[in-house]
Fold this sequence. Notes:
Blueprint: E1 6-10, H1 15-26, E2 30-35, H2 39-50, E3 56-60, H3 66-80, E4 85-88, H4 103-131, E5 134-139, H5 143-146, H6 152-172, E6 177-184, H7 190-193, H8 197-206, H9 215-226, E7 237-240
Parallel strand pairs: 1-2, 1-4, 2-3, 4-5, 5-6, 6-7
Helix pairs in contact: 1-9, 3-4, 4-6
Bound molecules: NADP nicotinamide-adenine-dinucleotide phosphate.
NADP nicotinamide-adenine-dinucleotide phosphate (NAP) binds next to helix 1, strand 2 and helix 7.
Amino acid sequence: MLKGKTALVTGGSRGIGRAICLALAKRGADVALVYAGNEAAAQTTLGMLMEYGVAAKAYRCDVADFAATEKLVADVCADFGGLDILINNAGATRDKLVMRMSETDFDDIIAVDLKGAFNLIRHVSGVFVKKRTGRIVNVTSVAGIMGNPGQANYASAKAGLIGLTKTVAKELGGRGITCNAIAPGFIKTDMTAALNAQLLENALQIIPVKRLGEPEDVAEAVAFLCTDGAKYITGQVIQVDGGLRM
Ligand code: NAP
């Protein structure tokens, strides 16, 4: 279904990003995965990708660094002979109540979770426009839709990502490029493992399907948006949250 396509997945070393890499590879896509510093996790994902018989390579790159992401896109295009799909999944949190949040706590999370996606979109857009085709999926969060106490930085970044998604969809829609966002709820990864047990217990009470999500639940929706069947869907925010927010 995605044979002959190359996907660049940021934050592909662990959690939701790893599941996205595997869901795309399962459909035949070659995968360039980006990680921040966890070399062992990146190698584990690469090993799992090899089992699908696709081409795969890991790139260490801070998505917040504009110049580094420009080089990254050039390297991926050279290594794979092109690029068709961009998944902006890399993300980080630094939770604090707004009264205690420092300027760097705010700026650093905006830089990774929002500017990081802009950086990649900025650099791949020329490649996609030239080919008059391309798929972009941004991983936002229900926190960006509902707000969340303790996450002024993260929720702002994720809300910004929705504005970015809709703007890019409007700017590039006429060039055969779609841009959508996926908004996960509570998904079982290292990110949610850091949350306190009581908070997760409270969340379970208000999730209609009565379980936390698996990374694969998110990955399947992302992969669908990259297939031909989704070619008329753009500018959308699709929630994968077990009904948490409706
Ligand atoms: P995770 O397990 O904490 O993994 C984060 C990934 O992002 C890792 O691959 C990490 O690389 C990479 N990363 C972090 N900062 C980076 C940077 N500056 N440059 C490049 N890569 C960077 O997170 P997750 O739970 O899978 O979340 C994935 C995405 O889903 C995030 O955007 C997150 O905000 C969003 N999301 C998650 C949930 C949830 O419940 N888990 C809910 C809503 C939205 P290393 O491995 O090298 O550190």
